[in-house]
Amino acid sequence: MRGPPIVGSLLGTRRQMREVLKLAAAGKITSRCEPFPLSEAAEALTRLKNGRIRARAVLMV
After folding, report:
1. pLDDT tens track for 36-51
2. What pTM was estimated for this model as a whole?
3. CA atoms of 15 and 4, how far apart (whole Å)
């Protein structure tokens, strides 16, 4: 049985990632997301396909 894959960042170097994580830990980075209840997953996907998601779509379970 295989576990979940571990995926790293495809952008930047390890040093840059450490710097970003330090900024995040200091509360200097904010993220934008649009939460959707799991029952609205189809709507979230439609909006994503149509370019109507401004940041990240997050399904709430």
Report:
1. 999 999 999 999 999 9
2. 0.56
3. 25
Instruction: Put residue 12 in one of left, alpha, beta given phi > 0 → left and psi -120 to 50 → alpha.
Output: left
Please check whether residue 45 is in contact with residue 37, taking contact to mean a CB–CB distance below 8 angstroms. Answer: no
Give me the half-sphere count of Cα atoms (radius 13 Å) on the Cβ side of residue 38.
2
Question: Residue 30: which pLDDT band, with cuts at 50, 70 and 90?
Answer: confident
SS3 letters across 33-61 = EEEEEHHHHHHHHHHHHCCCCCCEEEEEC
What torsion do the CA atoms of 33, 37, 40, 42 make, to the nearest 10 degrees? 60
Q: From residue 19, how far is each of 7, 10, 35, 47 by CA, in Å?
A: 19, 15, 27, 33
